[in-house]
Specification:
about 120 residues; 2 helices; alpha+beta; 60s Ribosomal Protein L30, Chain: A; seven-stranded mixed sheet; about 25% helix
Length: about 120
Amino acid sequence: MIERIGKAARWSDAVVFNGVVYLSGHVAEETRGQSVLEQTREVLAQIDDTLAQAGSSKDKLLSVTIYLADMAGFDEMNQAWDAWVDSDNPPARTTVEARLARADYAVEVTVVAAR
């Protein structure tokens, strides 16, 4: 059975299948246009919320992909990440520079987690 969370016309915030939770890319809405640090904090809080809705949490992360609009923000992103991530259960992680959907998005994060 496939479960969809936060379903919209174009995507779902999360899809659960066979005990695995797949999150769509999460971006900052309230802090859009602000610093990489602030946007990352907001995105990670959104991820906490979406994982909770799916019956999971950050200690069950399997992999994370972080997209930065500019790698110059890598240290700021890591400041927020290091304060958030469960260091006893760190996921596999990839960080890349990419042009994001809007010019005022600095970071987008997608996650795969166990349920």
